[in-house]
Amino acid sequence: MRIGIYGGSFNPIHNGHVHVAETAAEEFSLDKVIFVPSKISPHRSSDEYIDGKERIKLIKLAVKGKKNMSCSDWELSQERVSYSLYTVKHFRERYPDAELFLLVGSDMLLSFDSWFCFEEILDEASLIVVSRHGGDMQELEAKAEELRKYGNIFISKSTPLEISSSEIRKKIAKNEDFACYLNESVVQYISKMGHYKKEAFTEMYKIDDKKKYLKENLSAKRYQHSLNVAAECKKLAEKYGEDPDKAYFAGLLHDICKELPTEEQRDLVTESGFTVCREELETRSLLHGIAGAYFIKKEYGVADIDILNAVRFHTVGRAGMSRLEEIVYLGDLVSAERDYKDVDKMRKLVYTDLNEAMLYALAFSIRSVLKKGGLIPPCTIEAYNFYTRLIKEEKEERSAK
Questions:
Q1: DSSP letters of 95-146?
Q2: pLDDT tens-digit profile of 282-295?
Q3: Which one of 35, 49, 83, 162 is most buried, by most CB atoms within 10 A?
Q4: Which domain holds residue 89?
């Protein structure tokens, strides 16, 4: 058996990491690749680094369904410094008859001879080097040739994916879009847990100017609804540990394009470049969320992906919504003026359990659309399934304790 050992902080694991593993497995005929997340120094900022158990969860989400990839918590369980030599020796003991390969990036190879007992590492395992930056192949080959007297070193010929975990963390902290760098399930989990977020709401989103615009461009009834939703979102944010000012801002603007003429809404949706399904395009009442998200991005310079998504998905929902998205979705349903049949039950749920509230709200919305013979967007069905599974998993975890 040929086994690849892939160590790193994986904070968070991104598509570049998975690319390295897949490339090595295919190019060097590995039967298995094991991700081994390292410990993070206790002196590191908790805003920037999440603990090992959470990184393990992210890795498992990223490699789910990939039969030749798994994850080990061995380094996380050790009290001593996680030198690669100890890790390689651990896997040698576990797989005595296997051919071991240590996967490293190009920057690691260039400093490999400064690693603790690097010669002993090459006694136990071969190195597979996958470039992280274009144009460094000549330098890598020269370094590999220098070190080959100690053991086997192989250089991958694959094209690198230049992705940085630190840059992803910065984007998350600024609430900029980071989804293209990560597996979809990893994105959803990070958003759900609020990992890596540390940047506070800024003064650039001045409320008084936005209220003036809404008052001038919405009916009195719609304007009052917007104020009510903003107030409700602020209360929910305070209860569930979100930024109250951001929640108020997103709630206030959720219907900013609600009363624009249909064609103007369609124009904004088309111009936005957002991914929009046919069901949304064919349903007038669903256009304003998409149009509104693009409008506040274009006119007010809102770059906060959480706020943009909260406005964009406040009518349809989606799988893996962030806490702020949930708050705006539910705040819209339970604002002070709402008086539909199930509103009291909905209000009770919203202040008891957000996951249960989301599932109930999505089921309520789907039933309402079906009664009217309307179209249901795939993202709404996906959201319903997501919260159904989530609640089932939570119940199973509680039963297991």
A1: STTSEEEEEEEHHHHHTGGGSTTHHHHHHH-EEEEE-SSTT-HHHHHHHHHH
A2: 999 999 999 999 99
A3: 35
A4: 2-163
Whether 291 is in a domain gets the answer: yes
* Domains of the chain: total: 2
Q: Are strands 99-105 and 2-8 parallel, antiparallel or unpaired?
A: parallel
Question: Which mean pLDDT values do the consecutive 10-residue runs of the chain (401 residues) have?
Answer: 94 93 94 91 55 93 94 89 88 96 89 92 94 77 93 88 86 83 92 73 71 96 97 95 91 97 96 95 97 95 90 96 95 95 93 95 95 96 95 84 65
Burial level of 20, CB count in 10 A (0-12/13-18/19+)?
Answer: buried
346 belongs to a structural domain: yes
Asked whether the beta carbons of 148 and 122 are under 8 A apart, the reply is no
CA angle 175, 176, 179 (to 5 degrees): 110
pTM of the model: 0.58
The burial class, CB within 10 Å (0-12 / 13-18 / 19+), for 286 is buried
User: What is the tens place of the pLDDT at every residue in 373-388?
Assistant: 999 999 999 999 999 9
> b/e per residue, 106-142, with b = 16+ CB within 10 A?
bebbbebeeeeebebbbebbbbbbbbbeeebeeebee
170: in domain: no
Say if residue 400 is exposed, middle or buried (CB neighbours under 10 Å; 0-12, 13-18, 19+): exposed
Q: Give the span between the Cα atoms of 327 and 247, in whole angstroms.
A: 7
Note whether 45 and 93 are within 8 A (CB): no
> How many angstroms separate the CA atoms of 384 and 359, rounded?
6
Of 114, 134, 163, the residue that ends a domain is 163
Statement to judge: residues 136 and 34 lie in one domain:
yes
Concatenating the DSSP letter of every residue in 360-394 gives HHHHHHHHHHHHHT----HHHHHHHHHHHHHHHHH
Q: What DSSP character marks residue 179?
A: G
